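Late entry, written up from scratch paper. The run itself happened at the end of the previous shift, but nothing got recorded in the book at the time, so transcribing now.
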Amino acid sequence: MSFETIRPQDINENVFDLIGNQWMLVTAGDSNGYNTMTASWGGMGVMWGKDVAVTVIRPQRYTMEFVKKNDLFTLSFYDQQYKPALGICGSKSGRDIDKAKETGLTPVFQEGTTYFEQAKLVLVCRKLYDSPMDPSNLLDEAVDEKWYPDKDYHRMFVGEIVKVLRKAE
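Output as recorded:
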């Protein structure tokens, strides 16, 4: 199967379901080196007059190195049959395993970045904003207690969605 390019406004899936329930892979790098990780936190919307996607990455994640040093990253979404593969990408480090080999996902090196052939939807994003989350700005102490017992606060990335690829029917 091939991909077709669509506008961000033509994404007709529920983004809350896509991100929170189906999960996504956050990927950065190219054929010279890349890494991917599973995420279930983030968002999509409009900021600074641009269609954007937001993702957050904990500092110890290997993918962080690739997102930091590249202008582009991808957010990719998959059919339910790939949930076990996403589970591996979320629980194993690319420092320790070859995630593509381990999961059977096939990397595609295009658009100046990396995504996977099995994706049903890919957002190619150009970084616009990069900032560590400041715990002093958390207004609900329960968030800090529940999600950050190790004080490993996420880094937030806002990316302009420069291309959307949808699996062609």
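The radius of gyration is 15 Å.
(Scratch paper discarded after transcription.)
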